[in-house]
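Morning F.,

Quick status update on the modeling queue. The single chain you submitted on Monday has been processed. Sequence for confirmation:
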Amino acid sequence: MLTPTGPQRGPASFACRELLARPGNQGRRTADIGCKTCAMAGLCACKSIDTFAHERLNDAVQCVRTVNRGHALYRPGDTFGSIYAVRTGSFKTLVTDSVGHEQVTGFGIVGDTLGIDGIASGRHSCEAIALEDSSVCAMPFRLLEMLCREVKTIQHHVYQMLGAEIVRESALMMLLGTTTAEERVATFLADLSLRWQARGYSAAAFTLKMTRGEIGSYLGLKLETVSRMFSKLQGRRLIEVYGKDLRIRKRLTTTVVDDGRREALTGIISKPRIVSGSI
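Structure tokens below.
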């Protein structure tokens, strides 16, 4: 993120704080944590913009909201106002049908974006729930639209984020339609490994904040099937499981996934990210 430019702020700064303030979730500035791996880092670090636009962008993105475990960042029907980047913690996104059946549609970890679903209709169509105590940076979309009109570099970055969402949805459909239960679980774990590695963490050992049931909902599998696939992978000495702590011993997609599908499946579950320096 950008360094604050000084104590004096213009009207845009106050508008940002008013827009983001909600009961119990006051916007505030925090230290520069995890910004290098953030999906919106390219916006904050963009150098080809004038000082005034730079200041407004700095004010907007550095508004931070905290969300306690089990609480919603937004719910279906909420008015869309901002795009969020996960700063700390993790989230699950889900949709619920008319009779109350829930379907997990994704998992957001540090650096991922949330809230893009609200662009289409002006209201959110899904729910984002914190899997642990988490925080997000919020970019007011009306300000982002204004900056996109003024700065082509920012506009290009936003287009990349939206295009990546389309790619993720298409790839997930292929995963669910062409793979076995073991391949789905193996690809999911391998993908998480790659995502954590891209953020500077261990690719071999990490904690699964989501439950087996939530993984099953995302992959189109029953809880019992997910648990059985974990046991099968552990029995093959590909992974070690200690409660929610996981250690990967071998490259899962190389060992489990059929050669004909391996290249297509590697990394398709994660939402493709636009990292700092890619624009």
